[in-house]
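I am writing to request your help with a piece of structural work I have in hand. I am sending you one protein, given as its amino acid sequence and as whole-number tokens for its backbone shapes. Kindly check, if you would, that the fold set down in the tokens agrees with what the sequence suggests. You will find the record immediately after this paragraph:
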Amino acid sequence: MRKPRSQMIVETRTKLIAAARAAFGTVGYAQTSMDDLTASAGLTRGALYHHFGDKKGLLVAVITEIDAEMNAHMQAVSAKAGDPWTGFRDECTAYIELALDPEIQRIMLRDGPAVLGDPWDWPTLSECIRSMTESLTKLAETGVIAPIDPEAAARLIAGATQYAAQWIANAPEPEAISRKAIDAFNLMLDGLLARS
């Protein structure tokens, strides 16, 4: 029995993204051969062009998938916290810690910006800012943090976490830099707390 077209499309896209993710995560975007990538997925270059337009379009799909996984991880970390402030703080720290993952370092923090440009222009960052703004609005409304423009604070915090992640990803000793970055970041973030 033949599979429905919609199922075949999903399977083809899934195979291409998985193959690209494996290649981009190990040899990097620039060194990934389109022919080797499609052959490893058991597909043709035509399938890649049809579904993603080009190699860059495939990178966008891989980044979107990894970003969704990162968000799910950070939300799970936040959900384990005992209160909204700790959840917010832990979620931000979890993002910085993810910069220790070799796949995230290569794809999200090095190759992504090199190929796609400034991460501030990526659609995924817009969602991050929106979500963080919402969290900060609630924290300000409940008096947990000092009155502050939540979007301004969200953009500054996102900038700090993004820069910390870049620093870790490009450091000769990522573990040591991660500890330094998280300690400094958490001290800075605690400056938002309302003073009694």
About this structure: Residues 5-190 form a domain with the Tetracycline Repressor; domain 2 fold (CATH 1.10.357.10). The chain has a mean pLDDT of 93.
